[in-house]
Design a protein that fits this description.
There is one protein chain. By secondary structure, the chain is mainly alpha-helical. It is 77% helix and 0% strand. The chain contains 7 helices and no strands. The protein has helices spanning 2-17, 19-50, 60-66, 92-119, 128-157, 162-194, 197-223.
């Protein structure tokens, strides 16, 4: 508890001095954590495919991840047949891409959240309606644009061109957007209604560890 209090105090101190830079560094770190989680899930997924007889019936995690392969099967050439018992190597370039994306997106998020706070102020007399208005605008405008930026940035950073970007949008954009509409409205209602402004982006980024891990797996699955 004391460590948490110190971290919060440090964050508030840095945020008061340099809010945008603080958010940028925080998002980069959390983006790195998210992709590390995603790469771990990918390693489990590949290991499950290399097991004799496939996924073991008692391995719940492998079974859940293996379900991804029904839609996005992993190419045999990527399964490293010479090291069937070893996990795939950690992709530090991919980690860097995710950290860079979180770092670069942060100023946009910062100004967007500040705009929502000004446009729909939450007071003691009126809290729920402004929060719902923020969520509606966020989900109708920022979420679709943000996802488009994510897939475009990742594809270009991986060396893809227009065709690769078009394929990415065709294959994974709409499923990811649907998943976004399932998760984020409830998260953002809590965020806008309860969380102080300086913690709203870190809160989103923390919840977003699971979301970014999902996007990372989705993005890498489409590459297959």
């Amino acid at each position: 508890m004391a460590i948490t209090s110190r971290l919060i105090a440090k964050f508030n101190s840095y945020y008061a001095d340099k809010p945008v830079l603080t958010i940028m560094i925080t998002n980069a770190v959390l983006g790195g954590i998210a992709d590390t989680v995603a790469q771990s899930l990918t390693a489990i997924r590949q290991k499950a495919q290399r097991l004799p007889g496939g996924v073991h019936k008692d391995d719940f995690v492998s079974i859940e991840i293996h379900e991804l392969d029904k839609k996005n099967p992993w190419p045999a050439s990527e399964l490293m047949p010479s090291s069937k018992t070893l996990p795939p190597p950690f992709d530090f370039e991919r980690l860097t891409r995710f950290m860079a994306y979180g770092f670069l997106l942060s100023p946009v998020q910062f100004h967007w959240f500040a705009f929502l706070s000004r446009a729909f102020p939450i007071t003691k007399q009126s809290g729920t309606v402004p929060a719902l208005q923020r969520v509606a605008l966020d989900q109708l405008i920022f979420a679709p644009v943000g996802l488009a930026c994510f897939f475009t940035f990742m594809t270009v950073a991986e060396g893809g061109g227009r065709r690769a970007v078009a394929r990415k949008f065709q294959d994974v954009y709409l499923p990811a957007l649907k998943a976004n509409f399932i998760l984020w409205p409830l998260v953002q209602i809590l965020n806008f209604r309860v969380i102080p402004l300086q913690f709203q982006i870190p809160f989103v980024s923390t919840v977003g560890i699971a979301w970014t891990a999902y996007l990372s797996v989705t993005n890498s699955s489409d590459e297959a």
